[in-house]
Amino acid sequence: MVTESFLPSLNGVTTSVLRVLDHLRAGGHEAIVVCPGPAPREYAGFPVHPVPALDYRGFRAAVPSRRLTKAVLDFQPDVLHAAAPFGIGAQALALARRQGIGSVAVFQTDVARYTRSYGLSLTHHAAWRWIRHVHGLADLTLAPSRASLDDLAAAGVERTMWWGRGVDSALYHPRWRTSTAGRELRERLSPHGEALIGYVGRLAPEKNVTELAPLARMRGARLVVVGDGPDRLALERTLHGTDAVLLGRMEGNELAAAYAALDVFVHTGTSETFGQTLQEAMASGLPVVAPAVGGPLDLVQAGETGYLVAPHDATALYGAVRTLVQDRGMRARMGEAGRRAILPRSWHALCEQLVDYYEGVARPLTVR
């Protein structure tokens, strides 16, 4: 497992990698992890091999090195899994091809669109050329949504299949709303019965979090932001003078209680290959509002589990959220429908599918 992101960083890539490793451990498989350092030395009993990395605006970008080559060749894997490959993932896939190791690349981060968010729009086309090269090294590329598969096809990436993302519907559950933690949080955030509009995720340019600002001025509602990242100060400045609250980073039961304490979930990122926080919100019984682009197109049933709005359309976003804030019955119906929609999406089922993909590309190691 060669991943561009791992603990202690928490994001969609890390979460997916951890769930896959948990499944491999439960199934009696063997694995190692190669990732940006610093990192824990093991996870789920599997050795972790950190490689040198550099910081860029809150990201740890690993640098290709001999450590990766040695770790892979010493382990002699049946399959190499490259999670969101770009830097060390590209090195690993090239190594796998040279050594005759079957490989699966998981397209999880739309780096080409991210370049625009980080002021690097001149490199957008170069990024897609690099993505086409990197994924061309893999025996199979897996993508989590129809939009992502279409993007890869348009870029000339071949040998692609769908592989989604699971959600822990036992952890993210509406029952947290009536738990002690959920009640106390709601009483603190909504002392006068305000509807709570929530965002959960990384506070970074690609998430467009400053577009949440108009929602902080909606009558009868309060904006609640969970997460941290390089855009936190910019968001705080934008929200100055409102009663919006930034709760910072949360995990586990604390995060589950925070989701369930909300009334409406809003996402503003337009470069999502999937949208894991949308699934977690739906599992928690919330109606969701998201841009009609990328991963959300597969997740949100417009008019049934929430609303899809035009990207960067502040008026449409405000209108959709206001409709939900003003209609408690609609919130309940959409939240229940969203919960039902995500129940079949367990990590166990998706990881079993992934192991099938592994078996499809596995072949004996042949040193050339």
TrEMBL record:
Domain Glycosyltransferase subfamily 4-like N-terminal: 11-169
Pfam family, one: Glyco_transf_4
Gene3D superfamilies for the chain: Glycogen Phosphorylase B
SUPFAM superfamilies the UniProt entry points to: UDP-Glycosyltransferase/glycogen phosphorylase
Record keywords: Glycosyltransferase, Transferase
GO process annotations (BP): carbohydrate derivative biosynthetic process
Record-linked InterPro entries: Glyco_trans_1 (IPR001296), Glyco_trans_4-like_N (IPR028098), Glycosyltransferase_grp1 (IPR050194)
Gene Ontology MF terms: hexosyltransferase activity
Glycosyl transferase family domain residues: 187-340
Record-linked PANTHER family: SULFOQUINOVOSYL TRANSFERASE SQD2
Name of the protein in question: D-inositol 3-phosphate glycosyltransferase
Organism: Ruania alba
